[in-house]
Amino acid sequence: MTDHRPSRRTVLKAAGGLTAALGLSGGTILATSAAASAADDGFGLHIVDRNEDNARMKYYRFATDAIEWDPAVNVLLPDDYNSGRRYPVLYLLHGGGTDQDFMTFDKMRIRELTAGKPIIVVMPDGGHAGWYSNPVNSNTGPRNWETFHLNQLIPWIDANFRTFAEFDGRAVAGFSMGGFGALKYAAKYYGHFASVSSHSGPASIRRDAGLVAHWANVSSAALDLGGGSIYGVPLWDEARVTADNPMENLERYRGKRVFLVAGTSPDPINFFDMANERQVLAGHQEFRAALRAAGIQHEGLEQPGGHVFRGDMFTHDLEGILGRLRKA
């Protein structure tokens, strides 16, 4: 059996370099809240806080046995939601960071960039370094983000909003750690999403001696799991790594819309940015080459700049998403 114990040099390199997990975005959304409901909704979720005052943006916080703390979710409705039509849904996954729990609309300008678009955008909490996974072990209580998102949240969204609850009605996209989560979910849950987009998210987690998988372990242990790990330490749970690695699940992208973007010129003065996007770009290039060799259609773009969310690329991506999904 291969020994996957990271050396001190590997861990330090990861901690200093691959903050691809940490797509930093600060702030919170909707500081006020309406009266909460503790009623069981039938999906293992209990609403403990909510704000539905804004015409487009709805905020919910849930209690769930899948997550020790109460994760929050933002639901951004189209301008004409009151028309009575049904809409496709984009699940938009945030990057990692120590000062935010879920996608921040204001910094990413998602509300502005989706104005006038006939799509519901769901932005769930994914943990500071949750990696959109059920960890091998946790010392801080349950942190089963995969269970929360796929088994609980999606059915809840379909039951409470006018969606197309089907393969052709859903897309998943994300930035940084969220870009990895999007690629993982689209492959692992084959029939859930017709379109997948990774904005500077790792696509190859075994390359460079498994640097991304090691970083998932290091970052999650420090920020979320109290020393626990996503994939196992000192040895990985190899089956989990394989199931999560986009590079090892190429056929599960066939027949889907696949969009990838990464930066080509990270800030040479900012070591963290440089290490982040160099690793992401190399992984995207490896993944795109494998998709081409397999004859799987995709769109892969390389843009100037480093490890940042690109609003113009999100706008371009959104048009492709709308073109692939069922029309409202």
Short key terms for the protein model shown above:
alpha/beta; 328 residues; Rossmann fold; 16% strand
Look at the structure and give the CATH class.
Alpha Beta
- Number of distinct helices: 9
Give the total of domains: 1
Q: Radius of gyration, rounded?
A: 19 Å
- CATH fold-type name: Rossmann fold
DSSP strand count: 9
Query: Can you give the mean pLDDT?
Result: 87
Helix share, percent: 25-40%
CATH architecture: 3-Layer(aba) Sandwich
According to CATH, the homologous superfamily is Alpha/Beta hydrolase fold, catalytic domain
Uncertain runs with pLDDT below 50, 5 residues or more? Answer: 1-38
Most strands sheet: 9 strands, mixed
* Beta-strand residue percentage: 15-25%
Helix/strand/pairing class, anyone? Answer: alpha/beta
Silhouette: globular
End-to-end distance? 51 Å
Helix-strand topology string: HEEEEHHEHEHEHHEHEH
In which order are the strands of the major sheet placed?
1-2-3-5-4-6-7-8-9
What's the short story on this structure?
The chain is an alpha/beta fold. The chain contains nine helices and nine strands. The protein is globular.
Structure description:
The chain is an alpha/beta fold. The chain has a single domain (about 10-325), classed as Rossmann fold (3-Layer(aba) Sandwich). About 35% of the residues lie in helices and about 15% in strands. It has 9 helices and 9 strands. Strands 1-2-3-5-4-6-7-8-9 form a 9-stranded mixed β-sheet, sandwiched between helices. β2 (about 55-65) and β3 form a beta hairpin. α1 (about 10-15) packs across α6. The relative contact order is 0.16. This is Acyl-CoA:diacylglycerol acyltransferase. Pfam families: Esterase (PF00756). Its EC number is 2.3.1.122, 2.3.1.20. Keywords: Acyltransferase, Hydrolase, Signal, Transferase. Belongs to the mycobacterial A85 antigen family.
